[in-house]
Amino acid sequence: MDSNIKVLKFGGSSLADAEQFRKVKNIVMADERRIYVIPSAPGKRFSGDTKVTDMLYECYNVAESGGDIDEIFSKVCDRYNSIIEGLGIDLDLSLEYQHIKWAILHHAGRDYAASRGEYLNGIILAKFLDYDFIDPSTYIKFFDNGTFDSEITNTLLSTELKKHKNGVIPGFYGSMPNGTIRTFSRGGSDITGSIVARAALADIYENWTDVSGFLSADPRIVDNPKGISFITYRELRELSYMGAGVLHEDAIFPVRFAGIPINIRNTNAPEDTGTMIVPCTDVFDSETVITGIAGKKGFSVITIEKAMMNSEKGFGRKVLEAIEKEGLSFEHLPSGIDTMCVVLHTEEINTCRDRLKNRICASVEPDSISIEDGLALIAVVGRSMVKAKGTAVRVFKAVADSEINIRMIDQGSSELNIIIGVDEKDFEKATNAIYHEFVK
Question: Are 360 and 316 in contact (CB under 8 A)?
Answer without folding.
Answer: no
